[in-house]
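Input.
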Amino acid sequence: MARNIEHLSSSYNLCMWFGGGKSIQKELMICCGGNESSSDVQVLCQVASLANGTSASAGGLTEGINTFFLLFAGALVFIMQAGFAMLCAGSVRQKNVKNIMLKNMLDACGGAIGFWTIGYAFAYADNSSGNKTFIGGKNFFVNQLDESGGAWIGFFFQFAFAATAATIVAGTVAERCKMSAYLCYSIFLTGFVYPVVVHSIWSADGWLTAFRDDPWQGVGVIDFAGSGVVHMCGGATALVAAIVLGPRKGRFYDEDGNALETPASFPAHSVALQVLGTFLLWFGWYGFNPGSALVIDNAASASTSALCAVTTTLAAASGCVTAMFTDTLIEMMATGEASYDLTMAMNGALAGLVAITAGCSVVTPWASLIIGIIGGWVYLGLSKLLIKLKIDDAVDAVPVHFGNGMWGVLAVGFFAEPDAMVTAGYNDVPGVFYKGDGSLLLCQFVAIVWVCAWVFFLMTPFFVVLNILGMFRVDPLEEEVGLDISHHRGSAYDMTTAKKEDVEELMEHRSSKHGKVDIPKEVQKEDTA
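Output.
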């Protein structure tokens, strides 16, 4: 057998390719002296047959690995719902905690129903027709979905993104929006508005997509994980909602409707919940960005996913410190005193995360640092601009998601690196800073205009109609009392203390056994009150 090893190797490869069939044994017989029963022939065909079965098993293993990868990444994206809930709950006043938590839960529920019924079909239904289409038109209720692990997990992963787009609005309209209006908006956004944006940029049949043989301008729009598709779409909706809904009572105007010289601030009721929510969102972003590689079974996808993790981390860190220290510097210049605002740090980190989401797979680490720094400045500037315009955003979701969604999409046109683009599956048309001809930058700019125009065109009349019908804003008295009591059967926190007479009895009882006991200061204050 050793003397014919080269011939046997060639025949062995053929045998493996065709599954070790009888016809291939003739080829092996030539190498082994024409003996069909040769032990060499039998052994090689047995090995080839085993290898063929192993190859089939490897294919199943590959699908299993990719399915688990998306399951894990999708779960991380979904846990961002908890992050939004904690951040919003900590940011609002104590009297509205139940309301904002329920709205975040309804985002997930409404998003699931809306995306399952029509959203997924509108977004991805005609994903391989080869024609540029505006919207998908089949596979409603995912009833024609290929019943494989990859197909099912693909729907789950995309649903998690849709729910994220919907929940961005929750914080902006907090403390004054009716529950019924919020549920209507959540289903409408995830069922129609958002899917059309998805189809245009992420579907292979979209008119702006980069995933075609003939993409627009030779490159198409690069929005790897959704700075524009998810965050700008949700942020633009939040902006429209805030304008139509109006500010919270007492925020910019007094009871007579006169403008306040200094806008009233409503301090967050729990900084601990805010920080917890921020870290949960940051954690979930490692599913949002690296998970958008969609598969992990090859070197290119693994490299792209790993790069995303690095660029995501650096952008968040730089956005955090930039927003906080820039705010501190502005205060020092104005008052001579320095303080460090935790809210600026938290929202600065989220701003950096939103900004890097579009280009996390196609920019280098140094570029992600710059994108995060500028993201912090974009957040800070837009946050102050909203106050001057008297637009009330309870959690600054508009500056974080809308402002930095735009910046993130545009940044790709400047910083996209050609080698990283090829590895991530795009054409090698680089950003301006890599001597690009501006085609990519033009595509990114058009994407920004498109998303803004589409969302404003649909959501403005939607919210205006809700407002005219009295379905949008709660009654002023209900707002003053708090939505927890007026809409959700009581406060989120049980602040009931022990009865005064019970405390006095306990003190007397202890005094009779152990001598005189000082009454606690808290009880003394209640007595004087």
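The CA atoms of residues 430 and 436 lie 5 Å apart.
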